[in-house]
Amino acid sequence: MSAPNEFAARHVGPRGDDVASMLEVLGYQSLDSFIDAVVPESVRMRRPLALPPGRGENAVIATMRELTDQNEVFRSYLGLGYSNCDVPAVIKRNILENPGWYTAYTPYQAEIAQGRLEALLNFQTMVSDLTALPVANSSLLDEGTAAAEAMAMTMAVAKHMGEGTPVYLVDSACHPQTIAVVATRAVARGIEVRVDDPANFDFGEGVAGCLVQYPATDGAVRDYAPLCARAHEAGALVTVATDLLALALLAPPGEWGADVAVGNSQRFGVPLGYGGPHAAFFATKDEYKRHIPGRIIGVSRDAEGNPALRMALQTREQHIRRDKATSNVCTAQVLLAVMASMYAVYHGPEGIRTIATRVHRRTVQLARGLRALGCQIEHEHFFDTICVLVGAARQRQIMDEAASRRINLRALGRDRIVVALDETVRERDVSEVVACFANPQQTIPALVDQRSIAPHSIIPDVLVRESEYLTHPVFARHRSETEMLRYMRGLEAKDLSLTAAMIPLGSCTMKLNATTEMLPVSWPKLAGIHPFAPRSQTTGYLELFHRLEADLCEITGFAAVSLQPNAGSQGEFAGLLTIQAYHRSRGDDHRDVCLIPVSAHGTNPASAVMAGMRVVVVSSDAKGNIDVEDLRAKANAHAEQLAALMVTYPSTHGVFEGSIREICDIVHQHGGQVYMDGANMNAQVGLCSPGDLGADVCHLNLHKTFCIPHGGGGPGMGPIGVAAHLAPFLPDHPLVPLGHARAEGTVSAAPWGSASILPISWIYIQLMGAEGLTYATKIAILSANYIAKRLSGEYDLLYSGTHGLVAHECILDTRPFKQSAGVDVEDIAKRLIDYGFHPPTVSFPVPGTLMVEPTESESKEELDRFVDALLAIRGEIREVEIGVTSREDNVLRRAPHTLAQVVADDWDRPYSRERAAFPAPGLRVRKVWPTVARIDNMYGDRNLVCSCPPVEAYE
Amino acid sequence: MDIPDNLRYSSEHEWLAPAGKTAKVGITGYAAEHIGDIVFVELPKIGSEVTAGSSFGVIEAVKSVSELFAPVSGKVVAINERVAKEPELVSADPYGAGWLIEVELSNDGEMSALKDSAGYRDLLATLPE
Fold first, then answer.
1. CB-count exposure of residue A126 (10 Å: 0-12, 13-18, 19+)
2. Crossing angle between the packed helical segments A427-437 and A392-404, to the nearest 10 degrees
C-alpha cells in the first residue's frame, strides 16, 4: 500500500503503514476495495491513465530546463499594458519564492491573516492614491477583465439609459486585447459596444458609459476632462484604463472626473511571465463602493475594540447573490498585488516619482533622437510610449533590423511603429532603438543629455500631476533593506500558511505545492517574456502548452483544452460561451436556459447570467443529491430552450452521485450540453473522467488539483477541456491567433492566461505519473473518510454516498449545537484557531456547517492532531450543554485568544489562561497566534474604510 | 411577532401605511428578524418610479443580500435618510424609525391586493420559524 514512486511518496502524506491503519479504522482490507466502495462502479473509468510513469525531481527539472532554453528573451518595447521591470530581489525571494506567502489561502479567517490583509490594504491605498479615486479593491485578474467588470458595474449603476439595447462606448486607442475582452462580455449580456475615437463619442439615448485609455495604446496623452463633463451631463459613467507609473507624473483620473480607473499593476515589480499572473486594479468613487466587483479589504475592529482588517462586503460575493450577481469574480491576484504593494513600500513616493521621471526622460531622448533622423512622432504629448510614423515601405525594414538586434517593437497598422519604454531601459538601449530606425546611409545622432530634459517636458500643463501620493507612513518607513525584510517577515508571521499547519478548507484543496514544481516560475527565460512576443521566440513555452494540454486531455477524457481562462469562474464563463457558440452554429439561437442544482457553487449561476443565460434551479433530494425526477421534469419543460446543465462532480456536498451518467443523458436527450464544474476534479483523477461520464465541457482549477499554490487568494488558473464537437468554439485572441476558427471571443487579456505558472502543473504531472496521480486521488478520499469516521458519534456527518462513505471532503453538521449550547459554527471555527489550525470552510455549501477537506498531502499525524482538536472542542461544547460552563461566556464564544489577551494583567474569564491558549498538547512548542481577537464584521460593513487608516489608529 | 393592525402587507414581507394619496413602506418584523444584522440599505432616488412587485432597493446584512419589492406602484416622494446612516434602525424599529420610502400611489386598485394583519399572520403561520 505504499506510494508507487519516490516523488509520490513525498507528495502524499500518509506512509504505507499509515494507509493500512487508516483502512483498518474504516474496516477495509485494501485501498482498492475501499475505493470500490466509495466510487460507484457505474462511474469508474477502469483503464489506467495513458501517461508515462513518474520521474524523479532532478530528471523532470532537467527536461523543464531544456524546454525553457528554447525560449529567447528579446529586449521588449511592446508595451500594451505589460512592461519590463526590476523586481527588487528582497521582494522576489521573500514573497514570490516564499511558501510562507504563496501557500496561504484567501483570507477567510481574518484573525490569522492580518499580514496579507495589511499588504492588500497597502495595495488598495497605493491604487487609490495614484488614481485619486477613494475606493479600490484588492485586485482583479487582468486589465481586460477589470475593464469588462467596469462595464458591468456601469450597467448596474448608470441612470437614464432609456429603453432598448444598452450601449457602451470604447476608445479605439484602448489596448486591442482589452477591447476584445470587453466586447466578448458585452455580446453575452446584450450590450452594444461602439468602438470609436473619443472625440466622436455621442452620449445619446441608451449610452451607459465609456472606456478610454490614458495614456492610449499608441502612447498619446489626452485631456479627457471635457469628455467626462459630456458623459456626466448625459448620466453616463467614464472608465479609464490607465498605468500606475504614468500617474506618478500625470494628473490622475479622479482629479479630472473619471468614475472608474482600471489597469495592470504588473510594472510595479512583477515579472512579465508571458502574460501573467499579474494583479489588475479597480478604483472608483465613494458613491459606487457597494457595487465594486471582487474582493475589498476593509478596516473593522476586534472584540477588544482594536483595529483589525478583514474582507469587507462579503455579501456582494456571488455565493450569496447567485443569479442576482453582476459579476462572477471569485479569485483575486493576492500574491501579485502583495508584490506590487511591496514595490511601492520599497521605493516610496520619491522613488516611484524618480523611476517615472527617468522613464519619461528616456522616452523624450528617444523621440528627439528619432526626430534627428527625420522620423515623425505622431503625438505631441506622451509619457513612456511613442508612435513613429515610418511609412509602409520602411515599417518592415525597421522591424527586421530590430529583430536582428534581438529587439521587439510593435508594428501598428501598416505604417507606424510603437515603442514603449520601461524602468530597465538604459541610455545605450535608447541608442540601439534609434539605430533600428536609421537608414544605412544615416549616421546615428548622439542622444541629448537626459539631465537637460525637464521632468515632465512632454506632458501638457493641465495634465501635470500636482497632488501627492503614497503619503501614508508605511510608504516611508521601510526603505533600508533590513527594515524591508523585517516588515515582510513580520507580516508573514501573522498568517497561517501551509508552512505551519494543514488548511482543511473544503472545496479549496490545499495540497502540497512542491518546491521543485515552483522553481521555474522565476527563471528568466519564463519570467522575462512579453505576452505578445513573436511565437518564434517562445517555442519552449508553446511546447510546454502542447504537452500540458495533451496530459489534461487524457486526464479529463476530452479532445481539446483552452489554457486561456485565468480562474475557475472565468473557465465557467468561457465554457458557457463555447456551448452557446455551438448551439448557434446549429441554428439553435434560442437555447438559453441553464439548469443549475440548488447545491451548486454560487459562481455557477453568476457565470450563467454573465453568459446571457436564464437560470432554472434543480432541487436536491433529502440526501443532498440532484433530484433526477425534478431534473427530468425541468429539462422536459424547457426542452426547446435548454442550453446547458452545470454540475459539480463529485457534488459540492462531497458525494459521488451514482446517477451522474443518467443526468448527463437526460440533458443530452433534450438538446442541452453538460458543463462540469471541475472544482472537485482532485477526487476524479485516474478513477473517472468528465469526458467519460458524459460531460461536454469542464474547467480545471489548476490551483487546486494540479498544485499551483493559491498565493493567499490568487493567482488561480481555470483552463477548460471540451469534447471534439466544441473545440472550434474555444476562445481566441486578437493579437496572438490561436486557430479556433469559430471562437466566441476572448476571455483573458493574455492568450494563455497566466502562462508562467503553467509549468507547476506540468511538472506535477510528470513527477507523479499515471500511477502517482491515481494514488493521490485515492489517498485524498481515504483521508477524508478517515476524518469522518474518527469524528462519527461526536459530530453528525451531513451527507454521504454508498456505504456511508464520502468522496474527498465531508460536511460536519454543527447546527444542533446552536440549540444545545448556544454555540454556532463561527465559534467552533474560531476555537480551532486556538488549537493552531486554519478552520475548514464555514457555511458552504450548507449554512451553519463545516466542510473539511484534508487532501492527500497531510500526514496521518497531522490528520489525527486535527481530529483530536475537533474532539476536544466537542468536549468543550458538552461542558456548556451539561451546564458546567456558561452559555454566554465560555472559551468558544470568546475565541480566538491572542497572546496579548492571555498575558494581560486582567483576566476575568471563567476559564484559565492556559486553557484559552494551550488547550492541546504540543501547542506550547508549535502554534500560530491570532494577532487580533474575534473581528466585528458588522461594524466594518457599516463603516466601510478601504485604505490605510492613520497610524494613530493603531496606537 | 408584532404585526400592527393599521398596516397592509405584501407576501414579500413589506408593509404599507396609507396616508391619503401617499403611503410609507418598510419591511416587517418577520423580515427584519430573518435578515439579521443589517449593514446597508440602498434606496431609490426621490422622484423615481417604483412598480408593484418589482425591486426598488437592496438590504445588505452581514450574511445575505435581499431585494426590496415594492408593494404598490407610484412615485417616490420621500426616503428615510436616517436609515442610510443607521441601517440598524431597520432591525430595531421596522414599523417606526426604520421605515424606508414614501410613495405617491399611482394605482389605488393595487392596495386591495395587499393583506391585512390577519391575512399576513396566516401567511407567517405557513412559513418555517
1. buried
2. 140
- Mean pLDDT rounded to a whole number for chain A: 95
Q: With 0-12 CB in 10 A as exposed, 13-18 as middle and 19+ as buried, what is A279?
A: buried
Least confident of A100-109, A117-126, A448-457, A651-660: A448-457
Chain A residues with CB inside 8 Å of B39's CB? 315, 938, 941-942
In whole angstroms, give the CA distance from residue B13 to residue B5.
15
**Selection from A905, A557, A888 nearest residue A722 by Cα:** A557
Interface contact B87-A942, CB threshold 8 A: yes
- What is the H or E stretch that residue A489 is in? helix A481-493
Residues written for chain B? 129
Bridging pattern class, strands A192-196 and A167-171: parallel
For the four alpha carbons of A29, A30, A32 and A34, in that order, the dihedral sign comes to: positive
| Strand positions, DSSP E, A183-266 | 192-196, 207-214, 237-242, 260-264
Upper half-sphere CA count for residue A874 (Cβ side, 13 Å): 18
Q: Which of A294, A254, A307 is nearest to A133 (CA)?
A: A254
Type of residue found at A760: I
Q: Place A180 in a pLDDT band, splitting at 50, 70 and 90.
A: very high
Which string of DSSP letters, residue by residue, matches A644-696?
EEEEESS-TTS---TTHHHHHHHHHHTT-EEEEEGGGGGGTTTT--HHHHT-S
- Which of B42, B62, B64 lies nearest to residue A937, judging by beta carbons? B62
Interface touch A290/B87, C-beta < 8 Å: no
ipTM of the complex: 0.71
pLDDT digits (tens, 9 = 90+) for A640-670: 999 999 999 999 999 999 999 999 999 999 9
Does B39 reach chain A within 8 Å, measured CB to CB? yes
The residue type of A596 is I
State how far the Cα of A620 lies from the Cα of A642, in Å rounded to an integer: 19
CB contact under 8 Å between A320 and B61, yes or no, is no
Let me know: does B76 contact B102? Beta carbons within 8 Å: yes
Contacts of B90 in chain A (CB under 8 A): none
- Cα torsion A227, A233, A234, A239: sign: positive
| Residues of chain A in Cβ contact (below 8 Å) with chain B | 290, 313-316, 320-321, 324, 843, 847, 937-938, 941-942
Instruction: Determine the residue of chain A that is closest to B86 in CA distance.
Output: A942
Cβ distance A89 to A282 under 8 Å?
A: no
Return d(Cα A947, Cα A702) in angstroms, integer. 32
For residue A615, the tally of other CB atoms under 10 A from its CB is 18
Q: How far is A825 from A814, CA to CA, in rounded Å?
A: 6
| Cβ neighbours of residue A272 closer than 8 Å, sequence gap 6 or more | A76, A82, A83, A84, A266, A527, A528, A529, A530, A531
Q: What are the start-end ranges of the E strands in A127-220?
A: 135-136, 167-171, 192-196, 207-214
Cell of B67: 431585494
Lowest-confidence range among A157-161, A256-260, A301-305, A717-721?
A: A157-161
Instruction: Give residue A318's pLDDT band: very low, low, confident or very high (50, 70, 90).
Output: very low
Cα of A743 vs its chain's centroid, Å: 24
- Smallest Cα–Cα separation from A607: which of A559, A648, A654? A648
Residue B54 C-alpha cell reads as 418589482
Question: By the CB < 8 Å criterion, does B61 face chain A?
Answer: yes
Per-residue cell: A616: 432554472
Task: From residue A469, give the alpha-carbon distance in Å to each of A223, A465, A546, B13.
Answer: 21, 10, 45, 48
Residue linked to cell 424606508: B100
Q: What is the CA radius of gyration of chain B?
A: 13
Cβ proximity of A765 and A51 under 8 Å: yes
